[in-house]
Each structure stands twice: as structure tokens, then as C-alpha cells.
Design goal:
This protein has eleven helices and twelve strands.
């Protein structure tokens, strides 16, 4: 089933469709939804025989074998309940994968190899080519259309990290999907402001991170916790302004955190850009807070990898790999579905205690408790089998004789 030997039973595309269908049925009555999408690398540094292995980065920047996923989670309009809503699995080693740089070279007629040029042309023609940008657009469009079909008036806001900072992405979300977007901006992005270089006399654009913003306000944060450390009476400087890119107007926001003594918490401020019109401090602050909620998808990745073993599969063929990665995401979605019920169910509380929770009721301790129950069930089945009882009755006396012999030998050695 996992390797697609039963084509009508399971594949990663059907899992993706099931996730979207579930999220639409669950959330379509909301007037506003926040969709957080992000890539997550599945790293297999010690595997070499798995099919279609691409290259991914470790947290310290090293290149290793692995696969890439694009995942989406959704927060409801109250920003409380999290739903795992979509997954796309791919590899940059896939025959249909054409990186952005090579695609740009093709359009500029810089591909010299006629065979490769013909291959790229064919993939463009039949729309089979894949890369980060193509998959992102298909991934977002699939979700957006599903929600709009079920609820035409629903408002969707897509939230992304710096990896998708581009005019093309913002225009796609705003013009093609008709949705809103909040994206973190790279520090290399230019503003609309410019200055004259005194050495060359030429006009140069000022980087957005160094530009002057038209509006600003400071607000006090009585208690700020970051990475387990608490800061009392911290301050946040929120600045916002308009920016025009390719004839489209967007809002840029710069947020800088300060400690009580006035020193910066981070070396550089956070830069955001949004398709949402911002005309007040409260609206700018809300955009900042929406982006901060993106950390929830990072928590999902941590749960999938550390608790469900997202990277620990041993299958080798590509179809099985795609399916098992998608299945793990699907199973993770179930545990987030029951999250609100964990503390209400007496059986679940007991299972969490069995898993070492000591009064804490979490997905992790629930899974640990289930693991112990399954081990106990396996032991009971083994013991209750008549043939196993006969084996144990003959094996235990032999163990006793072996232990007696071992103890006698030890005593003899000591003497």
C-alpha cells in the first residue's frame, strides 16, 4: 500500500487532498483564517541508497542527503486552534526539478546544451517542471480554491518567512489568489528612498533596514519570554510606512525589541511586508503579532521529528518515501485535532501518567503512555499463548541452572 502497489488505496496526493478537505470542513465557517506555510527539510545524512535523494541543509549549514517538504498549518479567526492542512513532498534530485537559476538562464537563452534546452522546453510545455516557486504556487492555490469554493466570502491571510520574499510571490497572492500576505523581508531589500553617493555622484537606493519610516510608536511589554529567558519591562518600537514595488502598494513594518536598559535584544530589527493596508499603530502591531504566530509551525516540525520520528523511515523507493512522510504529517494532524480534548478525558490523563507525565497532559506523554500500553499488550499476548507457556516452562529451569553455574564459577574464581 505504501509503495503504491495498490494505486487506488494511498498516495501522497490523496493524503494532501484529505488534509485540505478536513481543514475546509472544520474551518470554513470562520470569516478569517491565517495560513502558515513553510519548507522543512527531511535530513538523511547517513543514508545513501534511498531513491531520489536530493541535497538539503543541516541547521549548521552543512549539505547532506535528504528530501524537502512544503507544509501548511491554519489558525482560526480567534488564533487559538491549529489545524495541519496540507503537505507537498519533493526532491531537488527529481528528473522534473529545474532550479530557479537554470530556468532564468533558459528564458535568457543562456542554456548552451541543446539536449538540456529541449528537456526544459518540454517540461515547460507539459507543465511537469517543479521547483520551490512552482510547488509553492500550486500548494497555496489548491488550499485557497478549496476554501473559496466552500465559502466564497472567506478571508485568507498567508504568512511566510524570508525564503519567499519576492515581488512575484506578493503579486501572486494578491492578484491571482485574491488573498492577503504577510512575509518577513530579507535585509538586502531596497526601499523607495535613495541618496547620492558622494564618491560616484550616482543615486543609490537605501536598504529598507536603514530607511526612515513615516510612522512609529513604542509600547511596553511587562514580561517578555524568549528562548526560556524572561525580560521585565521590555520595549518594542513599531515603525510602518508605504512602499511601491512594480506599481503595487504594500506596507512595510520594522519591529525592534529593547531590554529595560535600552540595549537591543537582537542585533537587527525584524522587517515585514504585507499586502494589507495599514493606517494606524494598532494595525501595524497586529501584523507584527500575526507574523510571530508563525512559530507554531516550527513547533509542529519539532513534534513530528522528535516525537513521531519524521526522519527515521528506512524505506528506499521514492513512492514509499513520499507516502510515509505524508502519512506522518497526517498522523501529526490527528494529535493536534485531539489536543483540546487531552485534559478532559480521564483515560487520556491516565495514559499520560503512564507515559511519565506526572500530572502533565501533552501529546508527547500521551504517545509515551500508548507505547508502554502496546508493549504490555504484546507481552500479555506472548504469555497467554499456550505454545509460549510451554516454551517458558522449559526455558526458565534452564536459566536457573545457567545462573547457578555462573555463580559457582564466580565463587571458584574468587577463591
Amino acid at each position: 500500500m505504501i509503495d503504491n502497489s495498490l494505486k487506488l488505496v494511498l498516495d501522497d496526493e490523496k493524503i494532501s487532498n484529505a488534509l485540505i478537505k478536513n481543514s475546509v470542513e472544520k474551518l470554513c465557517n470562520n470569516s478569517r483564517l491565517y495560513i502558515f506555510s513553510d519548507h522543512c527539510d527531511i535530513r538523511k545524512p547517513h543514508a545513501s541508497k534511498q531513491e531520489n535523494q536530493g541535497k538539503v541543509r543541516t541547521l549548521d549549514g552543512k549539505i547532506v542527503n535528504g528530501y524537502t517538504t512544503l507544509n501548511s498549518v491554519i489558525l482560526d479567526e480567534r488564533k487559538k486552534n491549529l489545524t495541519l492542512s496540507n503537505i507537498s513532498v519533493f526532491s531537488n534530485k527529481d528528473d522534473d526539478f529545474i532550479c530557479k537559476k537554470e530556468l532564468e538562464d533558459y528564458h535568457k537563452d543562456n542554456i548552451k546544451n541543446p539536449i538540456r534546452k529541449a528537456e526544459i522546453a518540454e517540461k515547460i510545455e507539459d507543465e511537469s517542471l517543479i521547483n520551490m516557486g512552482v510547488i509553492l504556487k500550486k500548494h497555496l492555490k489548491k488550499q485557497s480554491e478549496a476554501f473559496k469554493q466552500a465559502s466564497p466570502d472567506i478571508s485568507l491571510c498567508h504568512v511566510h518567512d524570508r525564503a519567499v520574499d519576492s515581488i512575484e510571490y506578493l503579486e501572486f497572492v494578491k492578484d491571482k489568489l485574491g488573498d492577503d500576505a504577510v512575509v518577513r523581508v530579507k535585509k538586502s531589500r531596497n526601499s523607495n528612498q535613495a541618496k547620492i553617493n558622494p564618491d560616484t555622484g550616482r543615486k543609490v537606493h537605501i536598504k529598507l533596514i536603514n530607511s526612515t519610516f513615516a510612522n512609529q510608536k513604542v509600547y511596553l511589554i511587562n514580561k517578555l519570554t524568549l528562548k526560556g529567558k524572561c525580560y521585565q519591562n521590555a520595549k518594542c518600537l513599531i515603525e510602518w510606512d508605504k512602499i511601491n514595488l512594480n506599481g503595487h502598494n504594500y506596507t512595510t513594518i520594522r519591529a525592534t525589541l529593547y531590554k529595560r536598559d535600552g540595549s537591543k535584544l537582537y542585533k537587527e530589527p525584524m522587517l515585514l511586508m504585507t499586502t494589507i493596508e495599514v493606517n494606524s499603530y494598532l494595525e501595524a502591531q497586529e501584523i507584527y503579532r500575526i507574523y510571530l504566530l508563525r512559530s507554531k509551525i516550527e513547533s509542529v516540525f519539532k513534534f513530528l521529528k522528535e516525537v513521531l520520528g519524521w526522519e527515521e523511515f528506512q524505506v528506499r523507493d521514492w513512492e514509499s518515501i513520499k507516502n510515509i512522510i505524508a502519512i506522518c504529517f497526517f498522523v501529526g494532524g490527528y494529535f493536534y485535532e485531539i489536543d483540546s480534548e487531552l485534559t478532559k478525558n480521564a483515560t487520556i490523563i491516565m495514559i499520560c501518567d503512564l507515559g511519565g507525565g506526572k500530572g502533565k497532559v501533552t501529546r508527547y506523554f500521551f504517545l509515551q503512555g500508548l507505547k508502554k500500553l502496546l508493549i504490555a499488550e504484546s507481552v500479555n499476548k506472548f504469555i497467554n499463548s499456550e505454545s509460549n507457556i510451554i516454551f517458558l516452562m522449559s526455558f526458565i529451569p534452564r536459566c536457573k541452572r545457567m545462573l547457578v553455574s555462573q555463580n559457582s564459577f564466580s565463587e571458584f574464581s574468587v577463591q
